[in-house]
Predict the structure.
Amino acid sequence: MRFRVPLPSIPVAIALLPFAASALAETKDAPRLPTANFVAVEDKPSETYVIGPLDTLTIFVWRNPELGGKVQVRPDGRITTPLIEDMQAVGKTPKQLSDDLAEALSKYITTPRVSVIVENFSGTFSQQIRIVGATDKPAAIPYRANMTLLDAMIAVGGLSEYAAGNRARLIRYDRASGKQIEFRLKITSLLRKGDIKANVGLEPGDVIIIPESLF
C-alpha cells in the first residue's frame, strides 16, 4: 500500500523566492564601505565627544579640589556640584562644560581652572551605534573613537543562529546631502571566516540592520 505525502512547504518556498531575490538584489546594489584601518585603541571619548545623559564625569578644580568630584549627569541633562546647584551638561563637549563651570565658579573664587573628564559614557542618541535584528543582544552602544564593525559586533555578542550576516545593511545619515545612505555589510565573512576586508569603520549615529535567513 502506497501513501502520498503532501508537501505544503514546497509551494510556500516557491512563493517566497521572489521576495528572497528582491532582498538579495537590494543588498547587492548597496555600496560597500572601505575597510577600517588598524589604529591604537582609545578608551576615552574623542575631543568632539558630546556629553549625554547618565555619563559619569570627574570634575577637577585646580587648588580647590573640594569644589569638584565625581558626578553623574541626570536624566534631565543637568549636574550638581558644590556651589553650583544646576548646570546643563548634555549637548556640551567636556571643554565647553569646563568653561561654563569656570565662569560660574568665578563668582566665588579667583580665576578658577576647571577640567572635566568623562569616565563612563553613554553619549547622546546621535553618538550611539544601534545594532538591530538577528544578533544575540540587539542594543544601542556608545560610539568610541575609531570604532569598527568588529568592535560593535563583539559588544552585542555576535550573530544569532539564523542571521543572514552577509545581507546586513548599514544606514548612515549624510550631513552634506541631508539624506540617509545605505551600505551593505558582510558580517558573516568577518566573524566566521576572518575576512578583515569586511571590517569597516563606523560613525556616530550609524544603524546596523541584520536580517534573518529566509531558509
About this structure: Residues 19 and 145 are 38 Å apart (CA to CA).
